[in-house]
Amino acid sequence: MKTITLKITIFLLFILFASNFYGCGYNTLVSLQEKVNSAWSQVENQYQRRADLIPNLVKTVEGAADFEKSVLTEVTEMRSRVGQTKITADDLNDPEKFAKYQKAQDNLSSALSRLLVVTENYPQLKSNESFLQLQSQLEGTENRIAVERRKFNEAVQEYNTSVRSFPTLIMAKIFGFKEKQYFKGKEGSDTPPDVKFDFKKEEKKDK
Predict the structure, then answer these.
(1) How far is CA 50 from CA 14, 45, 103, 139, 142, in A?
(2) H or E stretch including 95?
(3) What own/partner pairs with CB < 8 Å and gap ≥ 24 does 30-37 have?
(4) For 152-181, how does the pLDDT look when each residue is reduced to its tens digit (9 = 90+)?
(5) What does pTM read for this prediction?
(6) Which of 86, 83, 57, 82 is nearest to 72 (CA)?
């Protein structure tokens, strides 16, 4: 009889312990996860907006005489790869998938940067109203991407801190809440660019 009573007491204590943690841990994790998912959707919206601008940008630039086709080809290819590299909110805790997604997006950013640099050599584009509008929209979108990525990282940091902290880490392990991935700076982004000037060419121009 004492054994049965002891078992019932232990069971009731366990239920009480679990219910307390459920209220102060599980709900918190759900709320923070939804915050991460919401931030992620905003990142995706801005990336999609950028992808939608690219076809018109490429079409406009193609009209410039003797424009460097390799640059346009690279942008088109990078956009295609981005379209093939999709992840969902459920994949945010997968380091491999997330790294692949970020790499594809960063490669597209680099290709677009090179495109805009090359366009500086074409005066007719600088006076093309359509190009100027697209360029402005693209630059604005890049800024919004940076802002939304920062907000996403902040949401992930808050969520991951909760997942690793006591007592919510108990609920995290029981219900399978895993740490999410962050956006990281592009490789080499912390290294100043190596700018070199060809003084011989400059001297020739002066002559």
Answers:
(1) 52, 9, 16, 9, 8
(2) helix 95-118
(3) 32/155, 32/158, 32/159, 32/162, 33/159, 33/177, 35/155, 35/158, 35/159, 36/89, 36/92, 36/152, 36/155, 36/156, 36/159, 36/180, 37/89
(4) 999 999 999 999 998 888 889 999 999 999
(5) 0.79
(6) 57
- Name the architecture of domain 18-184: Up-down Bundle (1.20)
Domain boundaries, the chain: 18-184
* DSSP states along 132-183: HHHHHHHHHHHHHHHHHHHHHHHHHHHHHHHHHSTTHHHHHHHHT--PPPPP
Which tokens go with 151?
Answer: 């907000």
> What CA–CA distance (Å, rounded) separates 31 from 163?
12
CA distance 126 to 67: 13
- Judge if the upstream peptide bond of residue 123 is cis by omega within 30 degrees of 0: no
Token duo for residue 192: 């100043």
Low-confidence ranges of the chain (pLDDT < 50): 16, 188-207
Q: At what angle do helices 69-84 and 95-118 cross, to 10 degrees?
A: 160
CB–CB of 55/147 below 8 Å?
Answer: no
Joined together, the tokens standing for residue 180 give: 């999410």
For residue 16, the one-letter residue type is L
